[in-house]
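Quick one, tokens below:
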């Protein structure tokens, strides 16, 4: 459920665009993505913000929730508040004391009750502050634990830039490597922030990054350091841009299984192309076929690992439990690209192929043994 804030200036924030979406639309889409069955928006806000077309939001005026002996949980969020879908999902799942109004400093609130109709009656025609005062007359009150990473209140349009930075920080995945988190993400998030104001889709960004990655492959046919370094830098550029599609999809609620498949396998196609080109170039320079055997082994193991790890990476879950699971998670990071850049600067990209041909089958064997039953946490 979404409430308008008390003050008129804050009410106008409903249509403020943050990372390409009006604030109220972002809140409604986040609630839908978090699994909320119904989302109600104050009718004044619905009329003021045209941004709800195509969403499941309904006006409060004619909304109804029947009494239920099973209790229903109602979440109240003012329209001047940004809520992460994680925060919204946890508000549905975290055990709470029944018939108690849990409130946080931003005036977001949660109540689990057999009389959700009383909640609707209290909030109709009221701002967030007035609605909470009405609800306090019916329910006991308890504090809602603060979560600065899950909730952010805006007080004026000048807060839009701060809100965008807050949203962008939340896009950093749990399974990031050190260089990816501290270097690549800084660049990809800056690019994504600008893309949110355009009509560029996540799938378009995936295709752009794949095209750049495939352009890197022919550079490794040469043994010259200049060519190999050019290929490595293109490979790194592919890796950076490859982060933009997922960031854009999550920021604008455009995630799809097809998009995840395109992203994941597009990335692996680039890896196969680069490994193959290094092997072919090395074989041509030595006049021997054995580098092709190394390349074939590296490619086969990489594809096998990709097939095994697909679900885990698409779901962005962090490894827990055994030391082996944590080690496998660390070894699967993209930071290996910086090794490629370093070796390529000296015309020694084929050294990386040797390491890949040895290491990737070992990685695959460890993954098969230790990740088959290992637990994961969101």
């Amino acid at each position: 459920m979404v409430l308008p804030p008390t003050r008129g200036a804050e009410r106008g924030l409903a249509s403020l665009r943050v990372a390409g979406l009006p604030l109220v639309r972002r809140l409604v889409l986040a609630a839908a993505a978090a699994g909320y069955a119904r989302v109600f928006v104050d009718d004044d806000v619905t009329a003021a913000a045209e941004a709800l077309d195509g969403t499941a939001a309904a006006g409060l005026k004619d909304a109804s929730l029947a009494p239920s002996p099973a209790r229903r949980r109602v979440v109240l969020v003012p329209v001047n508040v940004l809520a992460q879908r994680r925060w919204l999902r946890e508000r549905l799942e975290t055990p709470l004391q029944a018939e108690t109004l849990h409130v946080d400093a931003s005036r977001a609130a949660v109540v689990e009750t057999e009389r959700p109709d009383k909640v609707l009656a209290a909030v109709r025609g009221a701002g967030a502050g007035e609605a909470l005062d009405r609800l306090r007359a019916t329910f006991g009150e308890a504090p809602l634990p603060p979560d600065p990473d899950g909730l952010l209140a805006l007080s004026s349009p000048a807060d839009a830039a701060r809100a965008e930075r807050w949203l962008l920080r939340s896009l950093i995945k749990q399974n990031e490597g050190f260089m990816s988190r501290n270097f690549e993400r800084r660049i990809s998030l800056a690019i994504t922030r600008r893309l949110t104001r355009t009509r560029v889709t996540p799938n378009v960004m995936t295709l752009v990054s794949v095209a750049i990655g495939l352009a890197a492959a022919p550079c490794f046919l040469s043994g010259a350091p200049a060519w190999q370094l050019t290929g490595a830098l293109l490979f790194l550029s592919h890796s950076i841009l490859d982060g933009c599609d997922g960031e854009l999809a999550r920021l604008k609620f455009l995630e799809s299984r097809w998009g995840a498949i395109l992203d994941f396998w597009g990335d692996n196609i680039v890896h196969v192309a680069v490994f193959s080109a290094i092997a072919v170039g090395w074989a041509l320079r030595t006049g021997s076929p054995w580098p092709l055997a190394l390349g074939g082994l590296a490619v086969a193991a990489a594809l096998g690992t990709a097939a095994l790890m697909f679900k885990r990476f698409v779901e962005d879950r962090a490894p827990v439990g055994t030391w082996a699971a944590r080690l496998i998670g660390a070894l699967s990071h993209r930071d290996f690209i910086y090794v490629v850049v370093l070796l390529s600067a000296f015309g020694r990209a084929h050294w990386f192929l040797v390491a890949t041909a040895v290491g990737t089958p070992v990685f695959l064997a460890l993954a098969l043994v230790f990740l088959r039953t290992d637990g994961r946490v969101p």
